[in-house]
Design brief:
about 40% helix; alpha+beta; about 30% strand; about 80 residues; 3 helices
């Protein structure tokens, strides 16, 4: 299980697990509970590259990032 410290969003961190090139699990700590649970559920079982492509660049109220964008950044960092 990897932990990514988020920046510029309400959630404090994201815990995630990747198996091969597939997202196995995601848990946001903090943030908008319903939305982050929904994102976590939707990306489970998806390929890492597909999650990054779909979520990277999502903006929340002009912050320049969002919880979905932070997840994409976390997956990029883990893949590197």
């Amino acid at each position: 299980m990897a932990v990514y410290k988020t920046k510029g969003v309400c959630s404090r961190s994201i815990e995630f697990e990747i198996e091969g090139d597939v997202v196995k699990s995601v848990k946001f700590n903090g943030g908008c509970n319903g939305n982050t649970q929904g994102i976590a559920s939707l990306v489970q079982g998806m390929k890492v590259d597909d999650v990054i492509q779909r979520l990277k660049g999502t903006d929340c109220n002009g912050r320049g990032t969002s919880c979905p964008d932070q997840l994409a950044r976390a997956l990029e960092e883990a893949r590197a």
